[in-house]
Amino acid sequence: MFRCVGLWAGLLGLLVMGDAQRLSAQERREGFRPLFNGRNLQGWKVYAGANWRVHNGELIAPADSAGWIGTVETFDNFVLRGEYWVDKGDTHEGNSGVFFRAQPTATPWNDGYEMQISLEDERNPTGSIYNRVPTNLTHMRAIAPERQWNAFEIRACGSHIQITINGEMIQDCDLHEFQRGVIGLQQHHPGVTVKFRNLRIKRLRPQECNEGWQPLFNGKDLSGWFATGMARWSVKDGAIVGEGGMGHLFTEQTFTDFELRAMIRIRPFRENSPMNPNNGIYFRAQPNPQNRNNWPVGYEAQVYNHIGRGEYITGSLYGRVMASRLLTRDGDWFSMRIRAKGDHIQIFVNGQKVVDTRNDEFKAGHIAIQCHDPFTIVETRDLYWRPL
Prior knowledge:
The protein is mainly β. The radius of gyration is 23 Å and the shape is elongated. It starts with a helix and ends with a strand. 8% of the residues lie in helices and 43% in strands. The chain has 3 helices and 26 strands. β10 and β11 form a beta hairpin. The chain has 2 domains: 190 residues, Exo-inulinase, domain 1 (Jelly Rolls), CATH 2.60.120; 174 residues, Jelly Rolls, CATH 2.60.120.560. Strands 1, 3, 4, 6, 9, 10, 11 and 13 form an 8-stranded antiparallel sheet that branches.
């Protein structure tokens, strides 16, 4: 009798574990494998803090200690899928994170990348790549609340990083700091309930990371570009920098149907600047035929991180369609993706679609970076494009 009870308990445990670590038939065909076996910490190592535990196929953080656990194995290019649960309890904040390409140090959020989990941190809400590319707190509270299982996917292929939470892509950016490291899970502070389950991973080959993208900027000099206006343009630390006045930097090449992605940062040239930083990415554009040093003729994807009456915020199709929400702030890098095929124009900011419209005013032209005024410093890097 007792042997039968033990057998049934064991079978039940395997069923629970199997449900928590499920791999679909499609995922198996694609090459995914479990990263956590649902039974013990095999393949994992506590790098800081107390031991984690396994219960009902869940990897549970220690309630009385801060720290993190990570894989023994290292990864470079991969797709990671899983689910997390966080509850702040009586503490000030439910805070956790998923580290990737992390180094085994006491500060993997600095010595690697972290997909942040927090609905209290305004500067780095859930889905932010911590201290690198933020998300929007209000939006993340709506799509990934606490005290429920939230599904996430991290795709890291070369410099291209994409993060999806509960089926919505919230990051689509380029980062070059780390190429390889461990995957880790964080318990930020004692008293928070943090759980993970259904962790599975697929390695990607380097050739899978291209996807037809071609560099538009070589990271070294301004070959293939020409300037109009008063702005001064230079290359510093792999980024195109515009400053000193109004002007535009055009590609020599022209484009018709294409997709463009770029990392952008704008900031005031001094602390007490009389104007908010302002910038834009022009596309299907030409230098102004009346005055080459004036505003180009074409479409502009606006970059302006302040909400005001009549102001076109970052991601807007300037003068035509307002972006659905503001997802950026001055002084921080963010990603912008522009897709133009025929009259169909879409603009994405940090992986989130903020404009989807039809407009056939301009058919082809250059891509241009704007330096709006002498009070703004503009930085643009990781410019890639592909034909559609």
